[in-house]
Please model this.
Amino acid sequence: SLAMKPQVVFVLGGPGAGKGTQCAKIVENYGYTHLSAGDLLRAERSREGSEFGQLIDSYIKEGKIVPVEITINLLRKAMEETMQLDQEKFRFLIDGFPRNQDNLQGWTTTMDTKANVKFVLFFDCGNQVCIDRCLERGKSSGRTDDNRESLEKRIQTYLQSTRPIIEQYEKQGKVRTVDASRSVEEVFADVKSLLDKEG
Ligand code: UP5
Ligand code: MG
Model:
């Protein structure tokens, strides 16, 4: 039978806005596969024999955005593997990507014809809430970037590099914004009504 063209929702928002949390809930309720660019990079960092481990490690600690060639290869591989295992799985939540112009350009040149970006799900959350959530998680997450120093850099990168990407999509009418500063359940209620409308 015919393979479906992958349908993609980009999930964006500041560090700790709740992208991963909400994506997990979407997966439970809708036919989406969750691909977190950050999780894929962290897995690649610890993969034996990876030539990018050191680079990824230092970029993540510094809150800097890894060169797109690395990220997009991980995303593409994960999408292909998912669709090979199950043809029904062609809807993807791509969480935490694209974060800057380099990311966006990389996507446009290599993926634009291969996948269809339906919209951007934007978890909008004040910086202080983001910082507080990550610091709280940092008590047990073991993430090398859940500390004050890294968080300051992550917020800077988000404001300087990622917000302009969201604004670009906004101009195309492609952003669906959810107030992410509320409880997990309140946020998800909005996500649900949005997805019920958009599919
Ligand atoms: N929590 C969640 N929702 C809550 C709510 N409504 N109320 C109260 N608490 C809530 O949540 C964070 C914490 O808050 C958790 O403890 C959760 O229980 C609680 P989570 O769902 O994990 O938020 P998320 O937005 O996913 O936060 P995350 O820290 O993962 O976001 P980042 O965007 O900072 O991290 P990511 O993993 O995407 O990227 C990490 C780094 O990788 C980047 O800084 C960058 O260096 C690198 N990267 C790239 O270079 N390129 C990429 O394409 C992607 C990443
Ligand atoms: Mg996350």
